[in-house]
Amino acid sequence: MFSALRLAFRQFAKSPGFTVVAVLTLALGIGANTAFFSVINNSLLRPLPYPNQERIVYLNEYNGGEMSVSYPNFQDWQRQQDTFAALAFHFGSSGVKLKTPERSERVSCTMITSEFFNALGVQPVLGRAPNTQDDNPSTPPSVWLTHAAWQKYFAGAKDIVGQTVQIDAREVVVAGVLPAKFRFVRSADIYLPIAPYAEQNLITMRASHSNSFVLGLLKPCVSLATAQTQMAVIAQRLRQEYPTENGGIDIRLSFLREHISSNSRTDLLLLCAAVGTVLLIACVNIANMLLARSFTRRREMAIRTALGATRAQLIRQLLTESLLLSLLGGALGSLVGLWGYGLVERLVPWQVQPLLDASDGVDLRVLAFTLGVTVLTGLGFGLAPAWHLSHANPNDALKQTVVTVQTRWGRWHLRDLLVGVQVALALVLLVGASLLIRSFQQVLEVNPGIRPDQVLTLQVAPPPMANFQKDPNSFVMFYEQMLDSVQNLPGLESCALGSNLPFSWGDSSMPFYLEGKPIPEPSKFPIASYRSVTKDYFQTLGIPILQGRVFDGREPVTNFPPDVPITPENLGKIFKGVLLQAVISRSMADQFWPGEDVIGKRFNLGFPGMNLPAAEVIGIVGDVTRYGLERGPTPEYYLSLRQFVTPAFTHLILRTKTDPASITNSIRSTLGKVFPDHPIYDVRLMTDRMDERVSGRKFNLRLFVFFAGTALLLALIGLYGVLAFVVGQRTREIGIRMALGAQKNDVLLDVLRRGLLLVIPGLVIGAGAAWAASRFLQSQLYSVTRNDPTSYAIAASLLLLAAIIACLLPARRATQVNPIEALRAE
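The chain above was modelled as a monomer; its predicted structure follows.
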């Protein structure tokens, strides 16, 4: 064994160029596979960091699409189910203001019911866990700090439990600190019980579905199917009991791990197939290099055979060299994989990213995968040359007889067939990259409905929600003061406020019904997204006005009766006789009033009996593809912020005359002076928000193009190597032909013809393989079919052009053969 290793190292030392190229090629292929398997491992294979994670279930409501869970519905689920050991409600807020003795901070907040940590199997390291008393609305609220928030805002004070802190100007007692390693799919700094805050967040209405879901822990020996059956019965019962609010609503269950990974599974597997193909091409390339190199070793093997070496000994020696080469490439590839994981980590689903440590890239499973790939790679590219050399006939080897494969199209060398395989595999990746590029071009050509250039957006933490519940118009005054403070800043063209900014991750929707038309069945009420905006909103974002007018800032402020809190029971008193003004999108006009003059039309917000106001259409504006360019526009309507104020997710939008960065500091300074106790956050350019919506598609595209380019390069290296070797072996033949009168152009065309004969079969086979494989890519395409002929033509033309270039170098070398020198060399 040691002698075989010494001989292998001696062989590598004789050919340092070959060794370096082979190791680097393998390092690229193995490293990329290691990085991507690390992502797959962390996203799809690694257990979640919770005890009993195989019993944790994600529940949501469903009505033709996934919906947030209604809080009253959840309370009914909790009372009527018996298949879950713990069932918890999770409500994500937009953030709260935490006041410490030193400063005020905006922190991310999640509101939960008492069994949330029980479902995850988590216990605080300090203090107590939530209990059923925390689910009572009249119980004074407590707060649970994450370990990071405890360290950051309270310097890790050991006596923090029992202390009182201010959260949104409300006194709250610290009940516990969570473990340092606790993470959840939606990161938060603090956790609050939902019950004391339910009314002020307006989630006690059964029709309210706002940024919430349910987490459950199945009882031992209870299957997901059994729980799904029981929850379906409960959903049916609620539909009968509350036909208006729950019409058509089902309950969907899935294991938490499955829910986390479902959105990215296809992307990850496609990219892994791409990177696996690159490794396969690399193996074929090195196998070809070894085959070419083996020609010079045939005499060596023949002599060793003549001296008594057995076939098994020859194969063992050659495979030892291959495995050693792969181990060197694997060692370097592991380092490439460690580095590459940081680049592809963003492919991890956003839900699971908070669960990962910075050190989560590699574990024993990843190391085992890398070792397995390394060994299989060594066997894969070494087996053919080893078998070829060990079966060489000593007499033929000493005569330099070339081994060929007989086909109906003529004689083919084994290395020629491997080039065809490389070309076919490269074409598969090139077709995939071409389809993604054309799809991405189609996405970018979609009109977003806004002019995002020179638009800066930000949020200012609003007053406490308790203020909104007492007097919503205090928020109107807060927002108007915000606009007044910045609208005269130098370099500012216009400014506005709006809820649920386009291309942000927030949204608000509400059912409605049209005046003068039959009230729909409970399960068929139309739903549209709505925004509360100020008068210059459309001008600032560049949304065109198509018909009628938009808000002018003189809309009458809704008169909220004093001492009447905002609760579902009081909506009839608050909005009695109120008629809102509304601007609707073109798609809403076309869908609900096709062919009609919609100016002056009215629609009622909510369901009948909810006592929400009616709205009168005053204008139509262009559609905005706010959820992503490829998703297209959806019906939406705009209400005046003066009339329908919203307490959260409201952005300040500023259009500047120059680069927004030039006035960002002055905007921050001005707002900081006017609102010293209200943190400024989420400061971003509108173009950045739009780019984020296509970032995943763009990143996948770049990776696919990179792998396709790598595959193309490896295929061309293989083609060049084969032709260069053939030209070298045919030097005497070419010299004789030229001595007999052959022209340089004849020799040039002959070499080019031979090269293209290697490429064209690969193109044909690759086109068929690409057509078969592209069906897995269809879900990633927009406005382009998987059979798009242009994409196939571009990929084939690119590969053919590159192949011609690769053929020209050996062909030119062949034309420069000196007949006298060639014959003298013999």
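The radius of gyration is 34 Å.
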